[in-house]
Structure formats: C-alpha cells, structure tokens
Input
Amino acid sequence: MSRPFASVRARATLAATLVVAVALVAAGTAVLLSLRSNLLGEAGTQAERSAREVAAELAVGTPYDQLSLDVDDRPVQVVDEDGRLVAASEDLERITGTGVDAVRPDPAASRDADDDDDDDSGESLEPGEIGDRTTVSDGSATIGGDTEDYRFAAVPVEPRDGDRLVVYAGAPLSAEHGAVNTALTVMLIGFPLLIAVVAGVTWLVTRRALRPVEGIRREMAAITASEDLARRVPVPATHDEVARLASTTNETLAALEASVERQRRFVADASHELRSPIASLRTQLEVAAAHPELLDLDGAVEDTVRLQRLAADLLLLARLDAGERPADARVDLAALAREVAGGRAGVSVRTAGEVTVAGSRGQLERVLANLLDNARRHARSAVEVSVRREGALAVAGVADDGEGVPAADRERIFERFVRLDAARSRDDGGAGLGLAIARDVALRHGGTLTVRDAPAGGALFELRLPGVGDASD
Output
C-alpha cells in the first residue's frame, strides 16, 4: 500500500488508541478511587463497631482490667479527658494516628478525676451514655511485632461512675491495600494488552476500509497514464461513504469524458466550417493574383464577412464554455426586442410595457438576433416578436408561420453545428451555431430557451429569464 494510505491508517490507529487509552485510564482511576473509598468506609464501620462495643462496657461500669480489648487482635485505646491512657490492648507495641502515642496505661490515672470539662467531641453526655458522633482517622499500629495500617474510630462515652472517656479502636487496612493493589496490577497488565488489541483491530479494520480507496487510486492513476476517460473506477458493494466517493468519481469521469468529446467535436466541426470560407477566399485571391480582371470582389467580401461572423460565434462559445459570467446591468427586454427587430422586413413586435431583466445587453441582443434570423429563414411570410411578464419571469417569444420543428428534433436543434435541412447550403443556413449560442446565453443568465408549435402553425421559440423590478422600485 502506498505511503499516503499507510499514513491514514497510522493516524486512525493512533487516534483510536489514544482515545481508548484515555478512556481506560479515566475509568481505571474512577474504579480505584471508588474501590478504595468503599473499603475505607467498610474499615471505618468495623472500627466504629469495635469502639462502641468497648464503650458499651465502659458505660455500664466495667473495670478497665476486665474490658474486651484484645478481640480480633485489633488495637484499642481508652483515653481520659486529660489525654492519659487508662486502658489499651495487651500486645500493643506502637500506635500512631489517634493523638495518643502511649501503649501502656498511666498508673496515675484514676476514675474519679474531675469530670467538669467536656471532651473533644463537643457532645453533652449523661452518665452511662455513649456519644453519637464518631471521629475517624488513619494511622498505624504494631501488635505482637506485626505493623499494619489501620483506620481508627474515636467514640466518646460517659461511664456511670467516672470521668468522660474516649475509646479508640482500629480496623486493619490490609484488605483495602490488597484489593487496590490487585486491581492496579490487573489494570497495569490488562490495559496495555487491551490497548494493543484495539490498535491491532483498528489497523486491520482501517486497512480493510481503505482497500477500496486504494483500488480507486490505482484506477485513477491508470486513467491518468492512459488518458482513457472511458474507464471507470470500481464501486464497492458497501453502500457507504467510499462507495459514494467511487460513484461520484465515475460521474465526474463521465462528465469529463462528455466534455472532452464535446470539445473534440467542436474543434472538428469548427475546422470543417472554417475550411470552406477560407478555401473559397484563397481561391478567389489566387485567381485575382493571376487574373485581376476576374476578381469577384463581392464574393470575397461575403466570404470574409461570413468568416468574421463564424470566428465571432466561436469566440463567444469559447467564453461561455469557460464560465464567463454575464454583466449585471438592467436591460429593458421589450425595448431591446424593438431595436433588434427594427428594419427587418415582415417582422412585427408586440410588447406590454417595460420588461426589465439583469444581464449582458450585448449577449441578450445576440440571442434575439439569432432567433429572428432563424425565424426569417423558415417563415413563409411573417415573424412575430412578443415580450411580456409572467409572474417573476420575463418572456420573449419569436414565432414564424413556417413548417415548425418536429417534436423529435426540438432538443437536437440546440446542439452545435446541427442543421435539420441537410440539403440547405451553408451560405443560406449558416454554420448551425445560432441556436446553440442562444441556448447557452439563456442558461448563463439563469433562464431557459425552448421551442414549441406556434399558433400560426410554425415554430415558437420562448426565452424565459428572471425578471427584476423597475428602476424606481
């Protein structure tokens, strides 16, 4: 596969991999935080339960040496309101996070100390009551030589016959650390594998998706090399964007082929049409050079004028084919029709006031002149020109009383170099460009030019253009 398409595959794969990686990292972080929060909450609940069990014993007056402090090997401290340790787990060797680092009860502490001060919890407790407010903190403890991280819960209690106390009990965080570490390990191993799978699948899917594009590229390269516009690119049967691209490419090739073929025919027909007046003019000049007394001056002038008109028609068609935009001037189509028809024998003009359009006056004059010339060649006695408004359109009609145009030929007559009367001479009928020029000019002005039967039995050519308001509007 060529480098540009490999680059597209690489960019698509990289983009998909980055998106998946970011999503996995975000999801993994959220999972880890949620897991840690849940496990810490569970540890806090366990610590609070243990603290309240000891607090319940203190509330009913259980002596310090009879408290259940060594259940499940969890660190427990009982601290009086002066911050002195009055009871602790038997195997407790070190503790942090409770605010009291002592691990052995203070011998000087007594249960009849002053109880007028309040504890840190801020709660007002009655004798024999356990506080509702629990304070949670994190720390570590060493029990029997084993050091672990703990979550501590502090519960205040007011014994029946003593000072206010605070019970600190811890729950191990080893399960939390283990679960989080296990999840992190799984993610560190699984996420790269998943990202690699996504990258591989994206690479293969992109390759498969771009394979038709590569086929289109190869065929276009072959068409360019061979200059054979009749060839077409393959259209995949996927009915997706690539298939539509191939169909559009084939439509473009078809339009380009038709344009090139039209240009070839135009050049061939133009060469053929130009050859006749040029040959005639050359012959007359050669005869005049050898025998001046035989010079047909009128014929030479006629051939020269004909050649000039043909060249002007060809130049105008070339400009229209090149996409030349008409001028945006206001033109009174009714006045223009009267001007073009003036001085032509057998031509009558019927208008209904001013009918204004936007466009090139010169090109619109050429349209009306071509239509009148065509009508006079086929009329028996009369030609009528009419200009009127039909809603937002300006309509100019040129009708004759001739034989009309057969329905099968009503589009063909607008093709270039077409003459329906094969027996008609070029001198009488022209080169067959007049109607083609008129149709092209009409289209360039956003209008239409059609032909149908005239009321008098001949042909009626109708030019329809977008109308504009009067200058005073």
Notes: The CA atoms of residues 111 and 162 lie 5 Å apart. The first helix runs from residue 3 to 59. The mean pLDDT is 83. The two ends are 64 Å apart (CA to CA).
